[in-house]
Write a structure and sequence with these properties.
about 425 residues; alpha+beta; 6-stranded mixed β-sheet; Ubiquitin-like (UB roll); L-amino peptidase D-ALA esterase/amidase; 7-stranded mixed β-sheet; homodimer
Chain lengths: ~425, ~425
């Protein structure tokens, strides 16, 4: 089948997708999605928000990966309700959905990975999700249309579905990688790997959904959170998968910010079916990391580009720092400065605000040595405005939807690239709507 | 003379004030202000921004206090031009104004304390300031009208002048304290004392304005920065004055944020003439600290209340933290969350966003034990929505211009009170204006 959005030969073998309308979204749109490892449990690795306040499905998903040692058969995602700030009932609703999905999709309950995104404080209508599971299962398929349905169902304030893919060779065999994600606000992911899985796999006496040790069941207001799912038909051990994912998330999802608000539900999950027959063996296959990097980078860019109220996507390139961590610290101060972000919205080459933000970032540097360029135009150097500063040209460069701000701290080799956006009245409008 | 704004008996003895139109502000309003210690050099203490990128007058003022050991005769403040990001010329302009003021006001150049606030990147027209100095000096006076002129002249995006005062007794003698300040955006002061003054006073061979060691000459865009000046006729040593000021600034100016952007020009200066004849001797006069605290608290509140685009002033009360520093860290995460701030603008009792911000603050706590109340209404406790949560009542409480959010972390005795505000489309409009 032809799909203008996703080419036919990009869907990894061994996975099926679907989405249905379970009646969670007020709009009546698709709101319940599944991905199913058709040929058996997939190798799995996940990264979750560093926010210590986490939603119930994050606690459950984390626990399930611990129990299985990194194996997922069925991914169930609902949008429209975050299943959050609902206390014990939140756990129970998540548990009920996982048990029912295990039944419908014929797997163990800990092999079900749950995700939720949407409004908070409203009890999750587990019964609506559960009654939709048979249709969700019955409609599974591997066409681009199925993938697109999945990508559309997980959207909240997103204006468009977000998909990226890569096809590459490993030892002469074709490997497919595809990723879908959502997120438009409350976006400043700070993802970390779930705890190292135990050596063994699914233990018979492990309580499938013991989340008593989980921290809590809270979540963002509104329709925020970043969710990203990657699927490949590569054969790969969970430990290697964790390394791949960790390596790809650092410069992508962990290097973007729309509003600096780190969500309680952020989740990145990567599944590998092995159905391509290609076996990953590091360090012999660097093209694999490159492909995962590329797909994550594309998805992360799509998130910022579709950010709430965004009219400009800004790449912050920080060089000359003592360390990469310090470079990122400077980038984040600039990315989270309301004064920088509002100036960008009007293409105002206001370097003073950029320098002020760098100055309060907590990173020590010599202001007399730094330089700043915007859209390729040097605006500041050696403690004062650049003698070659061309205000009109810089303003024109900033009228583009995307431009780069380069800040060189001139004191080391540490650097980073960080993706962010402007702050507009539309962002305020979207998030000031009385919605709780 | 009667003044509706400032009662007559509140102006400290020994000080004279004035302001004139030097032609710096595009509006043509008052833009050059002076305060003069008429009876001789005043005891002085100052706190400056922790931003490591600082404007020229901050570097010069800091240096002058070092040279004099904490003594100021003449304060010169201009608004409309921050004298920033202008390189070496910025230093020279500041020096020229100080030398000219020393000449006009008959004092030593290091006894002149300069401040600037306003637009950046535009060279300071020192000659305009210098030609206005004679009129500024000639019009000095001690009436409430003179104080009000001073307070109006230092305004930038402020919509109203900000003045607070206190009169109290020390050993049976009446002491007067008055403060004037400005600030409406780029407000997240993180003030620290200038370096400890040397034991000696003004040294004959000290280069009056050697700012070669100062870090730089940069400043915010637009018309931001907090400037605050306190005057008292108490007799007090500079060292005691530093302690008083430090004690008062921590819970006031250092516990407010409008937008999280810490300016490069923030300055708080306190001068004491001794003209009341009352001599401060700690710890026998606790009423002095109380008065300074009260005046600083009032000024800090006036700044937030007049913040750019502000429609709600929000007091964050954090209790039950392990330390006061951790309480403040949690407060700042909430105060700087765009999602919290936009929710407040529409009186949305969105506790999920508050919890999410606390969760990414970096302070460890147990989400299942915390509680949140908004405007006196308990909204969240024990990991879930409060059974007594009254959405309509909470929304109604948030329709007030001011309300308090109380977050109890239930793990210690550390607490703080932090003042902040909502984020509105008007803030974006003000700061997105193409102004560089």
């Amino acid at each position: 089948m032809a799909n203008a959005f996703i080419p036919a030969d990009t869907v990894p073998l061994g996975f099926q997708f679907n989405a249905v309308k379970a009646g969670i979204k007020a709009s009546g749109n698709l709101d319940l999605a599944a991905a199913f490892a058709a040929s058996g449990p997939a190798s799995a690795a996940a990264m979750f928000t560093r926010n210590q306040v986490v939603a119930a499905p994050v606690a459950v998903g984390r626990k399930h990966l611990e129990i299985t040692g990194g194996s997922v058969r069925t991914l169930i995602v609902n949008a429209g309700n975050a299943n959050c700030a609902t206390g014990e009932a939140g756990y129970n609703a998540c548990k009920d959905v996982c048990f029912a999905a295990a039944d419908t999709f014929q797997c163990e309950a800990p092999e079900v990975f749950p995700s939720s995104t949407g409004i908070i404080g409203v009890p999750l209508p587990a019964e609506k999700l559960i009654s939709a599971l048979p249709a969700l299962h019955a409609g599974l398929g591997s066409t681009p249309e199925h993938v697109e349905r999945f990508a559309r169902a997980i959207m909240t304030t997103d204006t468009r579905p977000k998909v990226a893919y890569s096809t590459f060779e490993v030892d002469g065999k074709t490997v497919r990688l595809i990723g879908m994600c959502k997120g438009a606000g409350m976006i400043h992911p700070q993802m970390q790997l779930s705890s190292r899985p135990p050596a063994g796999g699914l233990s018979a006496d492990a309580a499938p959904m013991d989340v008593a040790s989980a921290s809590s069941s809270l979540a963002p207001g509104g329709h925020a959170t970043m969710l990203a799912y990657l699927f490949t038909d590569l054969e790969i051990k969970p430990l290697y998968l964790r390394n791949l994912l960790d390596g790809a998330v650092a410069p992508s999802f962990n290097s973007i910010s729309i509003d600096g608000d780190t969500s309680t539900n952020d989740t990145v999950l990567m599944l590998a079916s092995g159905a391509s027959g290609a076996v990953y063996s590091p360090p012999h296959h660097p093209q694999v990391q490159a492909a995962v990097d590329q797909v994550c980078a594309s998805l992360a860019h799509q998130i910022v580009d579709d950010g709430e109220g965004v009219t400009h996507v800004v790449t912050l390139q920080i060089t000359g720092a003592r360390t990469a961590a310090e470079a990122k610290q400077v980038a984040k101060a600039i990315a989270h400065s309301p004064l920088c972000k509002t100036a960008w919205s009007s293409a105002d080459p206001n370097w003073g605000r950029i320098l002020a933000a760098a100055g309060y970032s907590g990173v020590a540097f010599d202001p007399d040595k730094i330089s700043v360029s915007i859209g390729g135009n040097t605006v500041f150097q050696s403690g004062a405005i650049s003698p070659t500063f061309d205000k009109a040209a810089t303003h024109t460069a900033m009228l583009e939807r995307e431009f780069t701000i380069h800040l060189d701290l001139a004191q080391g080799e540490g650097c980073c690239t960080f993706l962010t956006c402007d702050l507009t009245a539309e962002y305020v409008r979207i998030n000031a709507d009385y919605s709780t």
